[in-house]
Amino acid sequence: MLRTTLLGALAAGFMSMLLTTAATAATHKSPFNCGKTFNANNWTPGHNPSGSIDWQNYGSDAINGEPVRATAGGTAYFKNAGSTSYGRWVEIRHDDGTRTRYAHLSTQVRSPGQSMSVSRGTQIGTVGSTGGSSAPHLHYEQRFANGAVDTSPTVEGVTVYRGQKKAITSSNNCGGGDNPYTPDEVCGNGFSAIDSHGLSGGRVYLLWNGSSGQNCVVTIKSSKVGSPSSVSASLQIEGESKVTDSGDFSYYAGPIKGAAANQCVKWGGSVGSSSWESRFGHCGS
Q1: Which sign, positive or negative, has the C-alpha torsion 36, 37, 39, 40?
Q2: pLDDT in the model for residue 16
Q3: For position 170, what pLDDT does the model report?
Q4: In what side-by-side order are the strands of the sheet with 214-221?
Q5: Position 177 in a domain
Q6: What is the pLDDT of residue 52?
Q7: Is 78 within a domain?
Q8: Where does the M23ase beta-sheet core domain start and stop, copy by copy (predicted)?
Q9: What is the rounded CA–CA span in Å between residue 224 and residue 245?
Q10: What SS3 string covers 97-162?
Q11: Region at 29 (left for phi over 0; alpha for psi -120 to 50; beta for the rest)
Q12: 77 C-beta neighbours (distance < 10 Å), count
């Protein structure tokens, strides 16, 4: 009985690992502008951490100064390790618990210590050579939800195993399925996402501005991007009437803002026939 249980647990763990790898492989695009080709180098041995990728020049295409874009959506955290290790770097925590890291950046779109919600294709910085880097390149990692590095990361459907170097052309930020807008951009300066809920064809976000004491709700589309289609966003401050923005929009619905310091809010949105609304909560933030 114990042997059977153990084998079953091992099999379940193995299947979970395969599913996690498959999910990672299915979601990430190149971290560069549409049509750009660069070498993805999964150096071995000696690359730290093992399994990470160094993106470098391809042919006559120089990578230095290239815009760096999120390979998948999530929340980006901006950091600076100084003159050692990663230098200026960003970690994006994705909705499925996985993470990506982008290091040795020359510039970042937010200051260290700040965060922002990003969609796939959102620019987070530019390629440089900060930290422990001897030449301009982008250090890139894909990490599982348990924090372990994926030693065979997949980008643009191409798996780069340890010891391999592959030239990969970006389809990131090419339009169609990639929304160029982020919740932070739509709501404006001072707002940051504190909650979100997935919809079929998009995601609704709740943001907070501590300086003004305001909430903001916006629904960002991930399907039919760039084409008018039904989408909505709503915000209700407890004791007040619900405010809704709905219509056929190309990229997003909202922003809906309301002063809600020390008050509970109900928020929600829809994309097509997929809709969701919260209970009253986030009382004061």
Answers
A1: positive
A2: 42
A3: 87
A4: 192-199, 202-209, 214-221, 252-259
A5: no
A6: 95
A7: yes
A8: 63-150
A9: 18
A10: CCEEEEEEEEEECCCCCCEEEECCCCEEEEEECCCCCCCCEEEEEEECCCCCECCCCEECCEECCC
A11: beta
A12: 18
Q: Write out residues in the chain with pLDDT < 70, as ranges.
A: 1-26, 175-178, 284-285
pTM (predicted TM-score): 0.61
User: What are the structure tokens assigned to 178, written together?
Assistant: 């990639």
How many degrees, rounded to 5, is the angle at CA 235 between CA 229 and CA 237?
170
State whether residue 203 is helix, strand or coil. strand
Asked whether 136 and 120 are in contact (CB, 8 A), the reply is no
CATH number for the domain that contains residue 187? 2.60.40
SS3 category, 96? coil
Would you state the pLDDT for residue 284? 66
The pLDDT of residue 7: 46
The CATH number assigned to the domain holding 82 equals 2.70.70.10
Looking at the fold, whether 200 and 87 belong to one and the same domain comes out as no
Structure token pair of residue 152: 């065979």
